[in-house]
Amino acid sequence: APQCPGIVPLCVDLADWDATEAAVGAAGPFELLVNNAAVAVLQPFLEVSREALDQSFDVNFRAVLHVSQIVARQMIAQGLPGAIVNVSSQASQRALRDHAVYCSTKSALDMLTKVMAMELGPHKIRVNTVNPTVVMTDMGRINWSDPQKSAAMINRIPLGRFAEVDDVVNSILFLLSDQSAMTTGSSLMVDGGFLVT
Q1: How do residues 15-52 score in pLDDT, each as one tens digit?
Q2: DSSP letter (8 states) at residue 155
Q3: How far apart are CA 15 and CA 172, in angstroms?
Q4: Under the phi-then-psi rule, with left for phi > 0, alpha for psi from -120 to 50, and beta for the rest, what region is 160?
Q5: Domains of the chain, start order
Q6: Could you give the CA distance from residue 9 to residue 7 in angstroms, rounded to a whole number?
Q7: 86, 62 in Cβ contact below 8 A?
Q8: pLDDT digits over 49-68, tens only?
Q9: Positive/negative CA dihedral, 69, 71, 32, 106
Q10: Which 8-state DSSP code applies to residue 162?
Q11: For residues 187 and 130, what is the distance between their CA atoms, to the nearest angstrom?
Q12: pTM: predicted TM-score of the whole model, two decimal places
């Protein structure tokens, strides 16, 4: 807030459809949106629980669709061009052990992004994803703290490391900016080359 005094934070449970509609609908007008909320409940395929499935799709997919609808409607009503960036994952394109639900939600998010780009493009609203490898956030550290598990992943990344938050932020800033004015419906890999191995 001290760095960006014009930003007003909203605290809302994104799984609560009505509360999200009220909170986000009362804010704006918007020109830019980054959908970054996510959960990663890791379970082997044969042990996936209904609770994990519901929570993951509620946050990783349904909330993105809903918040984007609210914001895009406002952009269109105001006649404003805009940009939306959905934070996806390399897991949308590569199967990972114990990630059946997470991989599925991120694959769904990639396709949602393409459909949004197609339908919102005529309104001058661009929609893209960034698809990072493991990012050293609190969630990333929790899920990748085991040296054996992390070594196996890092060995498949040509740049030899996981992503830092700034790696992802800088990619998002590019996709929000006019520097990417002709980019929509794209997935920007921020994976250190993981998907080429």
Answers
A1: 889 999 999 999 988 999 999 999 989 999 999 999 99
A2: T
A3: 24
A4: left
A5: 31-196 (3.40.50.720)
A6: 6
A7: no
A8: 999 999 999 999 999 999 99
A9: negative
A10: P
A11: 6
A12: 0.93
Distance (Å, whole) CA 7 – CA 39: 24
Asked whether the beta carbons of 145 and 152 are under 8 A apart, the reply is no
Rounded mean pLDDT of the chain? 94
Rounded CA separation 80/70 (Å): 14
In the set 30, 61, 102, 194, the catalytic residue is: 102
| Tokens 């994104």 sit on residue | 14
CB 103 within 8 A of CB 96: yes
Token match 């830092």: residue? 164
| 33 and 85 Cβ atoms separated by less than 8 Å | yes
Of 71, 73, 66, 68, nearest in space to 27 by CA: 71
Q: What is the pLDDT of residues 91-112, one digit of tens each?
A: 999 999 999 999 999 999 999 9
Q: Of the candidates 147, 114, 120, 152, which has an alpha carbon nearest to the alpha carbon of residue 133? A: 152
CB 66 within 8 A of CB 109: no
Encoding tokens for residue 7?
Answer: 């930003």
Q: Is 102 tagged catalytic?
A: yes
